[in-house]
Amino acid sequence: MRIRHLLLAIVALAVAPISASRAQQTEIVIYHYQTDKRHEALKQVFRRFEAENADVKIVDIFKPDQTITSDVQAALAARRPVDIATIAGRNVYFMSRTTAAVPINQDAGKAAFLDNYLPQFLDVGRRGDQVFAMPYAFGTPMLYYNKDVFRKAGLDPEAPPKTWDEVISAAKTIQDKTGVAGVAHLAAGNKDYGTMLMVTNAGGTYLNAEGDKLMFDSAEGIAGLQLWQDLVIKHKVLPIANDAQWTAAFLGGRLAMYVTSSAGLRQVVQQSQGKFELGVANYPLFPGRSARKVPNSGATFMLYAPAGPRRDASLKFLAFMSRLEIANYWSRESGYMPLMKDPLRDADMKKYVDEFAYVRPVLAQMPDTVSTYVWAEKGALEAQSIVSKLIDDLWAGKGPASELVPVAVRQGNAALAKTN
Amino acid sequence: MAELALARQLRRSDLARGGVSLWIRSGRPYLYLAPFIIVLGAFTFWPLLQTLLLSFQAWNLNPDVPSRFVGFDNYRGVVSSSLFGAALANTALYLLAAIPLKVILPIPVAIFIWSLGQRGEAYRVIVFLPTLISFVAASVAWVWLLSPLGGYLALWLETFGIRMAGLLTNADTALWTILGIATWKGFGFNVLLYLAGLTRIDRSLIEAMRIDGATDARIVRDLIVPMLGPSIVLVLITTVIFTMQQVFTPIDVLTKGGPANSTTNLFYMTYQYTFVGFNVGFGAAATVILCALVFLVAFVKFRIADRLVHYTD
Predict the structure, then answer these.
(1) In this model, does residue B207 exceed pLDDT 60?
(2) Residue A10 in domain
(3) Contact (CB, 8 A) for A188 and A89
(4) What residues of chain A lie within 8 A of the CB of B279, using their CB?
(5) Do the Cβ atoms of A380 and A212 come closer than 8 Å?
(6) How far is the C-alpha of A136 from the C-alpha of A30, rounded, in Å?
(7) Which residues 175-204 of A are in CB contact (within 8 Å) with B?
(8) Could you give the ipTM of this predicted complex?
(9) Which of B67, B79, B147 to substitute to test the interface with A, most A CBs within 10 Å?
(10) Which of A203, A207, A186 lies closest to A368 in space, CA to CA?
(11) What's A360's domain CATH number?
């Protein structure tokens, strides 16, 4: 009996510290869609945070990027713990209106870290005075090009095209002399982002501030989309496919130029090694314009933790993530843009930029980025479907943009008005 | 009838006299049925009822936001949307095209394999193999096979100097391409169903017809096809249901309903309303409309089957 009591006491003493530490630890659940090396980098950030905050444990839950918004919705509906969720920038407005998202700056004293962010990124999550989302995974569209194909076509690989006219000229030369397809432009988000990009860079406005009215039937918007049609129909330099096929074609050396997000920069650099020499240039200027204007695209962290220890711990994590050295570490390891004001204050970041030349055009383009457009709560699905159909009709040559765009905008606005 | 009434009367008086044990004995069949009824009720009828109720509500899946009764607004919204017209037309097209491809075409293939006897085993395996592959995996493979930019088919055609068009990015060809993939995937299953029906045909009847001088075509037309009637009805019904459901996977993987809404169907539209647009009311209304259409199609088919099918047993 005494031995039994002694054994029980030993076991209790062994378990007690663990139980005590678990009892003192606050668990926060973070939903994200990072994979492979980015997931490893994010886990490193989590471990560094936990090392500094022994009373907090992070549970990271992966969901695919295409379904994470609906997965978070489902988790919230099922009352499963969600403290911080990764939400795409274009869904922030919707989620802030339809879920119990907590404004990160609800307590201004605990949200001073938000001032570290560049305003064009923080504005994605801003609604009036409230900030519902903190940016953390953003890219900007860049022109990736195959220097070997440029050389083969007799073009200077160190002088990439700066305007869309130069892109078209280079693409035609490449196709004539090498047989390699000329150029592709990302569509993304069922062609929503691609359309937004073409319109905005041409000087047009895609959506109004409330996200419930399409506005790209202006002269500039029509011109932007006419350019996209011309790439396919008139100049025949853009082969119709989808983003995944264009990416594979570019990495396989079957596409000379590809406009896509800088978020994939590190992967593209890695996958092109040994195959061809990669070049990275800024997003082409619209004909007749001297400045580019590119909506940023990416994901944010939204706060859902209930008031109490979990919210305090979640806010601590968000503050940690926005520290210059941590945000820059995340940017370097993930390939996403650095989102902090004056990121080169950090010596490690400066060294990285000096050594990794591909990222320099990305940093140079940051002043040209504007906040992405966000859709209203209702009617977006039908309106986005109408926009997608518009692009398909333009690529099929069913009419010029001056005819098709106003009709699509009218139909899209009718769909938005019906439900908002 | 009189005996039945007497039996019922006797049973009632037995129950009145017999006490608890008699009640238990008479209720036993229902006890055996109870698990099935409970599961069916919980996973089929209850969700159907909930969906019907939700179709009259405006809700976005947020448990903290109460739903709001909106009457028939959701139905009006769905029917008047540009998506609905395209989805309905495509659903009808999928169904009409599936009948010759998946119901009629497998018949001669099954007859051929059956006629070979044991030598037909290899053909049976080859035809059935695509059915075993996951539809998602098969769809992903087809994306890359059909890619106009370096896909295997494009590369092969290039050797003959032919430049392959984007079958999945052209509104005129995308739906037929998906149909072709769905047919390739489900063809073997229907052949197997017909083979099962063919094994029930007495070969001596075929021999008798041959002795009488009947040609192969006559035997197929006047003996085999009529006796395959029950199998044809089964294949028809399963094809209609599976065609509407299974094309969801290739649509989601290959085209997301595009280009220009040329491949979307009612199932995909319902999914988009509920899980992409989070408009649960619209999604529920679309589901109710879809259910009504499926019931109508099934009713029509059963009526036709009753008149045309000959059952030998």
Answers:
(1) yes
(2) no
(3) no
(4) 378, 381, 419
(5) no
(6) 13
(7) 181, 190
(8) 0.76
(9) B147
(10) A203
(11) 3.40.190.10
Coil, helix or strand at residue A203: coil
- Contact by Cβ (8 Å): A171, A288: no
List Cα–Cα distances, A330 to A47, A116, A140, A267, in angstroms: 13, 15, 16, 15
Taking only the tens place, the pLDDT of each residue in A74-124 is 898 888 999 999 998 888 888 888 888 999 999 888 889 999 899 889 988
State pLDDT tens for residues B76-128: 999 988 889 999 999 989 888 988 899 999 999 999 999 898 888 999 999 99
Q: Are residues A95 and A107 in the same domain?
A: yes
Q: How far is A75 from chain B (nearest CA, A)?
A: 10
Cβ distance B149 to A245 less than 8 Å, yes or no, reads yes
Residues A61 and A31: beta-carbon distance below 8 Å? yes
Rounded Cα distance between B198 and B201, Å, is 5
Which pair of tokens denotes residue A315? 């806010």
Q: How far apart are CA A321 and CA B141, in angstroms?
A: 39
Cβ distance B60 to A98 less than 8 Å, yes or no, reads yes
Tens of pLDDT, residue by residue over A165-219, are 999 999 999 999 999 999 999 998 779 999 999 999 999 999 998 888 999 999 9
Interface of B with A (CB under 8 A): 60-65, 77, 80-83, 143-144, 147-151, 166, 169-171, 256-262, 272-273, 275-279
Residue A17 is assigned to a structural domain of this protein: no
Mean pLDDT of A407-415: 93
Residue A289, helix vs strand vs coil: coil
Pair A182, A238: CB distance under 8 Å: yes
Mean pLDDT (whole number) for B50-67: 85
Cα–Cα distance for residue pair B259/A8, rounded to 1 Å: 69
Q: What is the reported pTM?
A: 0.83
Cβ–Cβ under 8 Å, residues A374 and A211: yes
Contact between A348 and A332 under an 8 Å Cβ cutoff? The reply is yes
| Chain B contact for A75 (CB, 8 A cutoff) | no
Note the pLDDT of residue B244: 77
Q: What percent of chain B has pLDDT over 70?
A: 89
The closest CB to that of A239, out of B148, B276, B278, belongs to B148
Tell me the H-state helices in B99-228. Answer: 106-115, 121-132, 135-145, 152-158, 174-198, 203-211, 216-219, 225-227
Tell me if A98 and B148 make a contact (CB, 8 A cut-off): no
Asked if residue B95 lies in contact with residue B82, where contact means CB atoms within 8 angstroms, the answer is no
**Residue B287: partners with Cβ closer than 8 Å, 6 or more residues away:** B51, B55, B270
Residue A20 pLDDT grade (very low, low, confident, very high; cuts 50, 70, 90): very low
Comparing alpha-carbon positions, the chain A residue that sits nearest to B172 is A396
Whether the predicted pLDDT of A13 surpasses 70: no
Closest CB to A248 among B62, B63, B150: B150
Angle between helices A401-419 and A380-395 (to 10 degrees): 170
Looking at the domain assignment, is residue A407 inside a domain? yes
Which domains, ranges and CATH numbers included, belong to chain B?
2-47 (no CATH), 68-203+231-305 (1.10.3720.10)
C-alpha separations of A246 from A242, A252, A259, B44 in Å: 6, 10, 10, 43
A70·B60 Cβ contact <8 A: no
Would you call A74 an interface residue with chain B, using a CB distance cutoff of 8 Å?
yes
For residue A2, is it within any domain? no
Chain A contacts of B170, Cβ < 8 Å? 240, 396
Domain stop point among A370, A393, A409: A370
Domain containing residue A134: 25-138+297-370
Cβ-proximal residues to A242 (8 Å cutoff; 6+ apart), any chain: A187, B169
